[in-house]
Amino acid sequence: MSVLGKPTRAQIQNPATRYGKAKASTRHFITQRITGAINIVFSIFIIWFVVSLASRAPAEMIELARNPFVAIGLALLVINVSIHMRNGMRDTVEDYFDKGEHGWAMLANNLFVGFFFVVALGAIAKLVFWG
Amino acid sequence: MAPSSRPLSPHLSIYRFTLTMTMSIVHRATGIALYGGTLLLVLWLVAAAVGGGFFDFVTWLFGMWLGQLVLFGYTWVLFHHMFGGIRHFVWDTAKAMDANGRELAVRIQLGASILVTLIVWAIFVWFK
Question: pLDDT for B41-91, tens place per residue?
Fold first, then answer.
């Protein structure tokens, strides 16, 4: 059986109780696995990008970021990381907020991830197309 | 829409701290740190896009000792979360779930994240 409101003690004690939406939750689980697996590659990429530029002149970073392969890699990283971080924060939000608070917390999550997505991609586009 | 009818998580203080549950908390903590830390990447990319004195300032900020300390910590956090994800992929196949296997898995994760962080910084920063 599925519960709609706040679960009662009896429902929590019953291991057969089902919570939330099965399809959405499965999609969430699979999305987090796929973006996580892709992030193994992006983690190595971003650490190489940041650490190899340590103590270099600022101009060298811009030159490297304008390389088409690096720029496309950075853009794909921002897209994949945005999906993964929004999903991950949703897990945290679901553990500690319910009802109305859940909505506000997810709104804050969406705004933060949206800010990262738009500003990071915008900065990369500026570097590549307008120098 | 997100389901809102799930029971909330009990407060942290009611759990007994074991190695695996501590590492579970660390996995979430590192995830949240990476989440907030995306602002550092945004700052760097925006500074590069804007250029001029602002980019010089941000380059100096990341190059000074405090900036380097944050980047060093961030490297470990990223590697630790990455190895934690790989540990979950192993657990997804129902392997290493017995008492010895799961303890070994988190020990390997912690050891690998520290070791790889030190190797990367040694090669790219300290002894370049």
Answer: 999 999 999 988 899 999 999 989 999 999 999 999 999 999 999 999 999
Q: Which class would CATH give A30-130?
A: mainly alpha
Among A120-124, B20-24, B84-88, the least confident range = B20-24
The C-alpha angle with vertex B47 and arms to B41 and B53, in degrees rounded to 5, equals: 145
Contact status of A60 with chain B (Cβ, < 8 Å):
no
CB atoms within 10 A of CB B29: 13
Determine whether the interchain pair B89/A4 forms a contact, defined as Cβ–Cβ distance below 8 Å. no
**Angle in degrees, 0-180, between the axes of helices A68-96 and A22-52, rounded to the nearest 10:** 130
Share of chain A above pLDDT 70, in %: 94
Q: Check CB contact of A8 with chain B, cutoff 8 Å.
A: no
3-state secondary structure of A64: helix
pLDDT band at B106 (very low <50, low <70, confident <90, very high): very high
Instruction: Say if residue B81 carries a ligand binding annotation.
Output: yes
CB contact under 8 A, B55 and A58: yes
Q: Which CATH architecture has domain B18-126?
A: Up-down Bundle (1.20)
Is A124 in the B-facing interface, judged by CB distances under 8 Å? yes
pLDDT digits (tens, 9 = 90+) for A4-34: 567 778 888 888 888 778 888 899 999 999 9
* DSSP code, position A8: P
ipTM score of the complex?
Answer: 0.87
- Sorted by where each begins, the domain ranges of chain A are 30-130
3-state DSSP assignment of residue A18: strand
Contact B45 A120 (CB under 8 A): yes
CA distance to partner chain B, nearest, from residue A96 (Å): 6
